[in-house]
């Protein structure tokens, strides 16, 4: 597709990298506590100069097309 000029090279930048971090707290953790704890981790990550964007999924589904699954209160 790139040879045909349909997709430009900027869509596949070699400098961009993606990482995933899964957090699992004690099973008694509430969604509110999960959110507070995860925000602390997010704030630390966002302070790193290499980080441009951050996406979080607090207690939401981790699998399924369009996130149609059921989440867990203790997982981010």
UniProtKB/TrEMBL annotation:
<protein>
    <submittedName>
        <fullName>Acriflavin resistance protein</fullName>
    </submittedName>
</protein>
């Amino acid at each position: 597709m790139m040879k045909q000029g349909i997709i430009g090279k900027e869509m596949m930048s070699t400098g961009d990298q993606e990482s995933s971090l899964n957090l699992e707290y004690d099973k008694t953790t509430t969604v509110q506590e999960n959110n507070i704890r995860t925000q602390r981790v997010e704030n630390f990550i966002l302070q790193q100069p290499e980080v441009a964007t951050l996406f979080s999924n607090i207690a939401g589904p981790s699998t399924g097309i369009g996130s149609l699954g059921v989440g867990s209160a203790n997982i981010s």
